[in-house]
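Hi team,

Filling in the usual template for the complex we talked about on Friday. All components are listed, including any nucleic acid strands or ligand strings, so the model treats them as one assembly.

SUBMITTER: L.P.
PURPOSE: interface mapping
COMPONENTS: two
RESIDUES: 974
SEQUENCES:
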Amino acid sequence: MNYNPPTPVERVLARNRWSRFIIILLLILAALYYLIFVNQYIVAYRDDLDHFKYGSIGSEPANGFPILVFKALPVMFRDELGPTGYRRFGMLYESEQSELPVGMSRRIVSGVERVWLNCAVCHAGTYRVSLTDQPTIIYGAPSNNLRLFNLLKFFLKVASDPRFTADNLIETINSPAVGGNLNFVDRLIYRYVVFPRVQAALQKLSTQVSFIHRQADWGPGRVDTFNPYKAIQFNFPMDAAHVSDTELNGSSDFPAIWRQRPREGMHLHWDGNNTSVDERNLSAALGAGVTPVTVDIAAIHRVRRWIWDLPAPAFPVPSAIDGSKVERGHQLFAEYCAGCHGMKIASGQYDYDTNRFPRLGQVENLDRIGTDRDRWASYTQNFSAAQNTLYAGYPWRFTHFRKTAGYANQPLDGIWARSPYLHNGSVPTLRDLLEPAAARPKKWYRGSDILDTGRVGYRSDGFGSAREDLFLYDTSVPGNGNGGHEGKSYGTELPAADKDAIVEYMKTL
Amino acid sequence: MPQAMDGTFLHEDNASLIFSPLKFRYLETKNRLFRSNLSGMFDEYNGYGGNTRLNWEEKFAKGGVGCIISSYTPVAVRGRILIRYAMIDDDDKIPFWREIGNRVHGYDCRFIMQLSHSGRQQDMGGVENLFKRALSSTNQTDFFHGILAQSMTVPEIHEVVEQFAQGARRAREAGLDGVELHGANGYLITQFLSSGINDRTDDYGGPVENRARFALEIVRAIRREVGPDFHLQMKINGVDHNNWLYPWKKKGNTLEDTLIICKMLLDDGKGVDSFHVSSGSTFPHPRNPPGDISTQNLVRWYGGMLSSGVRTRFNYRIFNNPIGGPLFQWLWRFRRGKIIEGINAEYSRYLRSEITKIDPSIKFLCTGGFQHAANIAGVIRDGSCDAVTMARPLLANNDLPQILRTANGPIKQKECTYCNKCLLNDLANPLGCYEVSRYDGDTFEEKWDALIKSVMSVYQPTLFR
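RESULT (copied from the run log):
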């Protein structure tokens, strides 16, 4: 017998207390759920440049690696990557101590810190004037080092590698090289949640981009922009029956992203498929791993504000400019080049005025320009239609994508830092580009960041690097053709001295 | 004295010791069973006693105790502990107390009035004290309920000393058999005596001799009023255990401190006639009344004290908290210790052995859960005390003395469980035994009806018949 029963009032109060307890508990659980599993946490940077280098644009939730997994992979696969880890793929670390390379951001998603790419991974280049220099990073310049093809292949290999197991992963994370210090609970999470998810995601990626096995190596500083896009964003069938080899050979150079304000309204991308800087930005972000759901619009807009007026870098070795030829070069450039590319005016400012330079930012017909068709071919009518469904329901829904008839003329500001040249990076120097196609280098080395300050471009003769660290660019490989942009109107028939003068002038752009 | 083989004594021997008379210097009781200080909120708000109180005291006299010590009887309304307790603050209260004496004496039972002053331990001061801080030795707030205090000035001390003296005079005029000073359990006299509370820097604070000055002045003032031949006893803490609730509080008086105080109060034979040994510098205290604490009853009845102090709301939230309540109960049991019955006997034994070396005529009473003959006789036999005082066991069994004549104690079901529900119910309800399990009945409802009947019996017989 209960000798101390509650009174009727106490019984009701006890019930209310339980209700209150349960409600408060549910609220706490909801708050915890929100704080841990819904809300995401980023590192915010005060400085716009730091934001560009390391700020998250929202690529991590859908595609990011847990940071410890990202750090563990080069340790687990040291025999593949060597001692320098991701540096092997041309990823730039600001210092030996840097935890992450430039172009990699972090975001805590579902309580796990994940890392993945941002804009800077493809838009930061380096140069050296002499072999012994430390590389100087130019932010906003096209990456000349990044070997995205090899990085992607590495991840695909990991997906199917028998050494990629939960045990190995956890052991590596806990090793001094990674220093993850996973406790018992962490280990359970990594074993039963994190590892299976990473493996499944990598295997899914393998299936999605299996077409890359049909592709030639993109090489350093190049990317096949649209084929992975077709596969990952739209699940396009990518087999040979649906995507021809020609369409698959669309690898092209990364572009520079400075001075975007004057580019608004011009035809952007190599083939000029879009005239909106914002759409082009958002589209490029998808390539970095963002999805329309996870995109951090504010972060991308901040990058946009920064590149809006970001100045093009000045030629780093003024003494290497032969002032006696610049004026002559100026005249020749005005005559042969400025109509399509704009030019620097007397005040020293680059003039992007499309009224003055009517072909600037316009698409040049394929037959007229004559450069390699395959990049153009990789961008299809169907694909542009699909792109215009992206972000449906948002004010920033894509509406500008179009299939064009050729390649777009671009301003040449900071052109010295955008080597090699043409959309597919098939011509190593400006001086080479002024030669008829037949006289341009047929096989040369990509991947060096040592400047050839005379011909303007990175050294392509293999100087200063082990051959295996360079990429032999073969212009006979489909998609790699170095033809086009030649003939009288392109200046390739000018005397050598005039060509030299044009190059001297172009150093000043 | 014949002893059983196992070292225990036969009940006949225990009973004959318990029911042997006890002779104080100026008072003799028929047995060694005293009712300790216990009453309910039965009286008039303004301190007059009434019919219910007469019934109340008569219950115990009839039950066979040799002497009743009244519940705390304020010598001034400023020193009231709870409302609706009869006071002795004015001569106009004498007739009521005279009637009490008469009723009790009819059963050959003595009656000692406990003179008390709450000091800062003023649980329910009543409307008369609503806008006053409680008088005390200190300005420090009571740490349990947070009752605000005001350190007494020397003139105020003299005034209160005189109030005690006049209370004693009125008790004698009422024909009562003696007075007891409530110097234990955290009330005003304890607040002066205790090193854990008294933070004065004048003649009434500091060393133990100074802290005892207030009590000694009261003893002398009483003697001045009532003469040397009126029974005067002192209720005192063996040990204060002042840090029971908050371990960072000072511990208060040790047994040695208490011995010094007792010696001083003898006042060379002109002081007190006996000591009544308790412990604990607050009331309630895990050691007094020793037993359990019912958080269910705390939540039900502590509400009446919410307006009394600045920590009562905090306490209430603790009591009412599903984690805080059981934790408080655990602390309460932990601080009490394992012994309940005879919890103060060791303190009493030490004090008695030392004091009787000085004056063998001084008697010692010991309180603390006594309800079994073997234990009562045991503490008398081993020199811990000369008699025991009982409150809750007598509340549970008014006729406990009669039970003890023939048995070691009540049958198991009828024993006092030391649940202390009586204590907590007293804040709101008629005082009685509220332990349901003790009552007869086959269902809870039957037992509860029996409980109510028992509790309400104090109102019988009614005044108007």
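MY TAKE: DSSP finds 18 helices and 16 strands in chain A. Residues 8-38 of chain A form the longest helix (31 residues).

Thanks, L.
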